[in-house]
Amino acid sequence: MLYSIIVPVYNRPDEINELLSSLTRQTFTDFEVLIIEDGSDERCESIAERYSGKLNIRYYYKENSGQGFSRNYGFERAKGEYFVVFDSDCIIPEHYFEAVNRKIKSARIDCWGGPDRAHPSFTPVQKAISYSMTSPLTTGGIRGGKKRIGQFHPRSFNMGISREVFEQTGGYKITRMGEDIEFSLRIIKSGFRTALIPDAYVYHKRRTNFGQFFRQLHFFGRARVNIRRFYPDQLQTIHLLPVLFLIGIPASLLFLVLRVPVAGMLPLLYLLYAALLFTDSYRISKSLNVALLSVPAAFIQLTAYGAGLIQEMFREIRD
């Protein structure tokens, strides 16, 4: 057994069905699938059973402990040489494992990750959110670009590790609030080699409306501050840019009302940024609807992340 796929799931049976269906179409099939039900009320055991004749699949139910420790639970029971982690809201292209296998054969890597994309079946809102989370015009652009500074830090929505990595590191140290960032940093500090595999992308559904997206990105902002407990140098200037973006919105409105001469140009900068987002999104999506929705998606991403950073920093000061 070469690959063990570990998927933690919490109250998302429909998503698991889509993910498993996509795995039945893989062109490289030397893998097993471990579904780790993390204390869900809406269990997906019956869905996993439907695929027992199509996939080498095992289903486990456990008490809720969060996604990080649920992945560890799967690692401990996996039989493969490599462990692959997907989020339950991913759809896997049929060539995924072929791309990974080529990379492993051509270069010694201990840990990898891949980008995410929008599937044609996604709603316009999901496509706009996907654009925001992957565009170089937002902080999302650092998540899977081919040109990178320093060693690649995989994220757990699409991540693979060797068995040796798990045995040496012990897996996830925290279960949420930036657990994948902490794990990636510890893998690298342990001397293992990581790599981005651009062709090993997944279709990541993320959230289905802007309210859910705001809450998710707000949590991501809080998680970035939480990582500082383990790695103080990981809260850098670039991570504070969303805070400046957030503060700049009410400031620009105030300058506009007060007709402040030079600073009054700030609202124009936001309008120019919105126009740039619209144009770039339309270039990629060829959809006016998606392009229009990409503007609020990007603004939500930056403001929610900034708000999360501020909240968690104030909580740390208060405690």
UniProtKB/TrEMBL annotation:
Q: What are the UniProt keywords, alphabetically?
A: Membrane, Transferase, Transmembrane, Transmembrane helix
InterPro entries, alphabetically?
Glyco_trans_2-like, Glycosyltransf_2, Nucleotide-diphossugar_trans
Provide the protein name: Glycosyltransferase
Superkingdom to which the source organism belongs: Bacteria
Q: Which GO terms describe its molecular function?
A: transferase activity
Q: Where do the TM regions start and end?
A: 238-258, 265-284, 290-310
In this chain the Glycosyltransferase 2-like domain maps to: 4-168
Gene3D superfamilies, alphabetized: Spore Coat Polysaccharide Biosynthesis Protein SpsA, Chain A (3.90.550.10)
A family per Pfam: Glycos_transf_2
Report whether Cytoplasm shows up as a keyword of the record: no
